[in-house]
Amino acid sequence: LSRKTMEADAANAALCPYSIMVYETVAEPGKITVSYRRPWRPEGSAASKSALAEVDKLLDGIARAALGTR
């Protein structure tokens, strides 16, 4: 998927690595937060936007699976 994204537009390399964060704070023990950085470049081509949408779907699925909401 990363290769497809880079082939669609080499500038998409700036969005790597894809990131998912899982954390708990001292202020709220027991509350686990899962988030991810959405890969998006509004100026990208249609192929670029399509490839990035696939990455977004993958990251969203992983985050939801981690939360048990998938």
SSE blueprint and pairings:
Blueprint: H1 2-8, E1 20-24, E2 32-36, H2 46-67
Antiparallel strand pairs: 1-2
Helix pairs in contact: 1-2
Query: What is the approximate shape?
Result: elongated
Number of strands: 2
Strand order of the largest sheet: 1-2
**Helix-strand topology string:** HEEH
The number of distinct helices, counting runs of at least 4 residues, comes to: 2
Distance between the termini: 21 Å
Please give the largest β-sheet: 2 strands, antiparallel
**Low-pLDDT regions:** none
Task: Return the average pLDDT rounded to an integer.
Answer: 92
Radius of gyration: 14 Å
Structural class of the helices, strands and pairings? alpha+beta
User: Helicity, in percent?
Assistant: 40-55%
Oligomer: single chain
The percent range for strand residues is 5-15%
